[in-house]
Specification:
Structural class: alpha+beta
Distance between the termini: 27 Å
Number of strands: 7
Mean pLDDT: 92
Number of helices: 4
CATH architecture: 2-Layer Sandwich
CATH topology: Alpha-D-Glucose-1,6-Bisphosphate, Chain A, domain 4
CATH superfamily: START domain
CATH class: Alpha Beta
Strand order of the largest sheet: 1-2-7-6-5-4-3
Strand content: 25-35%
Length: 180
């Protein structure tokens, strides 16, 4: 499961699952605490209530401390970059969802669901309202690479460089995800 690929589950929607080392509170903190979240995704404050502001401060070029340069295709996404969204659902330690990029009516939405599985935690990430095949490929490969960094951090391992992993995964998702 920890190397499984994101799967399309509906039009414009991909889902990816990871079994993470627990406990649940620890994984929740890596989703919500800006200092912990910056270690695998992005810093920034999230107001944990429906309608609350979700600020993400990305710096993908410095995510692992030994990253290669940003691919030309993603110039401007290496960092630092900022994205503002709105919380659409929040049940502490179980569910967090917020809009992702774009204007409120044009934004996609990412949803994190957590479930205890013994000493581990199942994370189900669903990203919906993706408007094109290219967006689905980019989002699936991005989440796959970011979750790889998270998994390494939770296991106390040094993560692999972000951009080479993202580039490899993007090529794989281009072949895996169906064209419309």
């Amino acid at each position: 499961m920890n190397d499984s690929y994101a799967e399309p589950v509906a039009a414009g929607t991909v889902r990816i699952e990871r079994l993470l080392p627990g406990p649940l509170e620890r994984v929740w903190n890596y989703l919500t605490d800006p200092d912990k979240r910056r270690l695998w995704l992005a810093a920034g404050e999230i107001d944990l209530r429906v309608g609350g502001r979700a600020e993400l401060l990305f710096h993908n070029d410095a995510l692992t401390g030994h990253d290669d340069p940003t691919p030309v295709k993603y110039t401007g996404h290496g960092g630092p970059t900022r994205q503002i969204g709105r919380v659409t659902a929040c049940t502490p330690r179980r569910l967090l969802a917020y809009t992702w990029g774009g204007e409120p009516d044009g934004a996609s939405e990412v949803r994190f669901e957590l479930e205890e599985r013994g000493d581990a935690v199942l994370l189900v990430l669903t990203h919906r309202r993706l408007r094109s095949h290219n967006a689905m490929v980019s989002v699936a490969s991005g989440w796959h690479a970011h979750l790889g960094v998270l998994l390494d951090r939770l296991h106390g391992r040094a993560p692999a460089s972000f951009w080479p992993a993202h580039t490899r995964l993007e090529q794989e998702y281009e072949a895996r995800l169906p064209q419309p």
